[in-house]
Give the backbone structure.
Amino acid sequence: YQEEEDTVILQRRCLRAAVDITKKEEITREMIDVLRPAPKDSIYPKFINEIIGKRVKKNIQKGDYLKWNMF
């Protein structure tokens, strides 16, 4: 049901930028927040250690949710 899918998105958490991140900057733990909601293409918190140390391909604004294609 559509209502259940909407609820899942609202209940799940994802990784979001805690600060503005510039292109080619290396990700640290301090740059990441774990917040709701979690859109379908977002990165879930269980993958946080895979993101730390990666460099971003483009500028990311504070509050934006992280996606795999950003790295």
The first strand starts at residue 14 and ends at 17. The longest helix spans residues 2-11. The two ends are 33 Å apart (CA to CA). The helical segments are 2-11, 48-51.
